[in-house]
Design brief:
With 252 residues, the chain is α/β, with parallel strands linked by helices. The protein has one domain: 3-Layer(aba) Sandwich (Rossmann fold). The chain has helices at residues 17-28, 43-52, 67-80, 105-133, 154-174, 192-198, 204-210, 221-231; strands at 8-12, 32-37, 57-61, 86-89, 136-141, 179-186, 242-245. Strands 3-2-1-4-5-6-7 form a seven-stranded parallel beta sheet, with helices on both faces. Helix 5 links the parallel strand 5 (136-141) and strand 6. Helix 1 (17-28) packs parallel to helix 2 (43-52), helix 1 (17-28) crosses helix 8 and helix 4 (105-133) packs parallel to helix 5.
Length: 252
Amino acid sequence: MGMLASKTILVIGATSGIGRAAVPLFVKEGATVIAVGRRSDRAVDIEREGREAGGTARFIQADIADDQSLDGLFEIIRADYGRLDGAFNNAGIQPRPALLHEQSDETFDNIFRVNVRGTFRCLRHELRIMCAQGAGSIVNTASIAGLRAFYTNGIYTASKHAIVGLTKAAAIDCAAFGVRVNCVCPGATHSEMMQDLVANRPGGIEATVASIPMKRVARPDEPAKAAAWLLSDAASFVTGDTLVVDGGSIIR
């Protein structure tokens, strides 16, 4: 019996990086996974990986920045599943590095539309289902940028601070309903987004690795494992927490 046995778990942002790694991991732990992302070209592989993990992963295309798309996703969940035991809100985007005063309004609006408003709307749908059923667990992906500032990364940093704040607010609001809300704060993790980021920074990946006490970046499954634990009953008395998975980068 895995730690997510018999649970129906939603993974938002399932087509790459941490979210992609979470799908087969959660299936191996016994969950039925609803895998959501924009890239439908990856649906066949994601569902195959679920079967190879010994269970079921169903891909549904949706965009958290599109209200109609997101509303349609939760209509499907209500109609086809009737409940939701857990959700991993992992979708997010990051702008190219630039000084804050050189960033545009368009960049700010785009980052906050996806990272903050999109996560808020996912949370609202999930909480309505879970509070009504009297149980559930949600994990949001923030970042170590949600706990400290990073040079030339101001808008992303602000958006991830907002995720930490939303997590704490939701945890307080919904604890009495039997719903837990936490977030994981990954550091540098192998992903398409990280590759784009370090490609535009002096020193590239070597400088990033040198700054991490454990002298490597995370595998995508490592933050996903932290999320699996938070979603599980093993973390039954944990809510409003920020679990840092960063190889010691921001030891305080």
